[in-house]
Amino acid sequence: MAVFLRPAKNLRFRPITTTTTIPRFHQIAPSLRLSSTMPVFAEGTDEKTAMAGLNPLLASGWTLDEEERGLNKTYYFKTYTKSVDFLNVVAIRSKSKNHHATMTLKFGSVDIHWTTHFPRGLSMKDVDMAQYCDEQSAHIGTVDQSQAQKCHA
């Protein structure tokens, strides 16, 4: 037996309006002020402390993931070896902190995604590890995407 649904008559659509400024969150990084979404923090996370750590990260190239529950960034390196070195340094710290990222190694870059799985959301562990990634990438030596080594297979 087939069921066919007909659209309702006299259906009216209203435009969605958004506000470009959010006075309550005036201290949030510009990248967040322009969007209508806020990070989804893990239960028990002190949001004020987390935002204080998150703002500089967003200003340095980190972005919220699609669900606003994690952080993403791609680091570019001049050689494949530097990419591997960076991944290994982050992996060692991840193991010692018992907090692991999703990392994708490419020929001249490393993609990193930090999120907390339980309780679900962004936590201070993610913020701390993202800060650690920025520190270590500076020691190893990141480059602009145009200078990163590419695979010429």
UniProtKB/TrEMBL annotation:
CDD domains: PCD_DCoH (cd00488). PANTHER family: PTERIN-4-ALPHA-CARBINOLAMINE DEHYDRATASE. Coiled coil: none annotated. Its EC number is 4.2.1.96. Keywords: Lyase. GO terms for biological process: tetrahydrobiopterin biosynthetic process. The keyword RNA-binding does not apply. It catalyses: (4aS,6R)-4a-hydroxy-L-erythro-5,6,7,8-tetrahydrobiopterin = (6R)-L-erythro-6,7-dihydrobiopterin + H2O. It comes from the Eukaryota. It holds the Pfam family Pterin_4a. One of its GO terms (molecular function) is 4-alpha-hydroxytetrahydrobiopterin dehydratase activity. The keyword Nucleus does not apply. It is an enzyme of class 4 (lyase). Belongs to the pterin-4-alpha-carbinolamine dehydratase family. This is 4a-hydroxytetrahydrobiopterin dehydratase.
